[in-house]
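To whoever is on call:

I kicked off a structure prediction for a single chain this morning and the downstream step that reads the tokens threw a length-mismatch warning. I double-checked the sequence; it's 308 residues and nothing unusual in it as far as I can see. Pasting both halves so you can look.
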Amino acid sequence: MILQVIAMEVQEALIPSSGKGPFLLKLFNVHPSPGSRPFRMHKHLPFEIVLFKSGQGIYRTLDKEYDIRSGDVFLFSSNEVHCITDIRGDMSLMNIHFEPRFIWSNGNDLFDANYLKIFFQRSKNFENRLDRDNPHTRVVGKLLEDMEVEFFHKPAEHRLMVKVQLLTILVHLIRHFDYVKDDETEDFGYKNNFAAVEKAIDMIDRHLSEPITLQDLAQAANMSKTYFCAVFKKLNGVTAWEYMTAKRVEKAVEWLRKGEECTMLELAAECGFNNTANFNRAFKLHTGKTPSEVRQGRFSAMGDSYYD
């Protein structure tokens, strides 16, 4: 049986961006009702780590299918297509979404893009689901649960502790799983460019409704356009143009979810698209749905751009 809408409960907490972006890190619990649905091209900008606390089901990517059990941990990179297509039993899962700059920003040597090798420098042995027989999978699961406690109880300096715990998880993934290439010796971090790229990202977040060119972003970062594009892709896993388009689609989704009264042309313009054709194409590519389907209420919570 195919369920068009899968009911669910969501509990979330987040670390906000300093600019107009929605968040740098979000932790949320999801409790979907049992059911099945067709595979769709679900993807998003933030990196994702998922811990399944209970239930069973199927997780699909473009080229693989994974069965789901309690205790499983999954990893997904920026714009990596993934979709839960079957939910059996009392499923409960915890998601962590975070932008790459949550790791490499802050002007501190502790925070380095090399932590992100598990997303950027994957070996041929990489699997989205962590090896169930590796004892460090349970260690990662426990660290995720500890992050959840920090988020919802909010003791002193809980944001810093969440970041330390996430860094610890990323180091475990690099050290104890054969998922990262070990033959790359280049300076992955581009440390001298962290602040400059963050300026460009803030410019995108603050001016989504306005026409922005790659040259504008490169100037904001005080780099040549060619070098800026290379550094941005290295630090974020997507191109600057892909990042900006995805952010504009996210803004459109939020407007539609809130029931904002406007025409599709007005919404496209508000989100930085110069015509509805480009807007519709980008929206469908990033969400698997059309704007009209979202507006008409055929966009279930389980099909939302975050909760998949």
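Update from on-call: the warning came from a stale cache, not from the record. Cleared it. Sanity check on the structure: Confidence is low (pLDDT under 50) at residues 1-10, 299-307.
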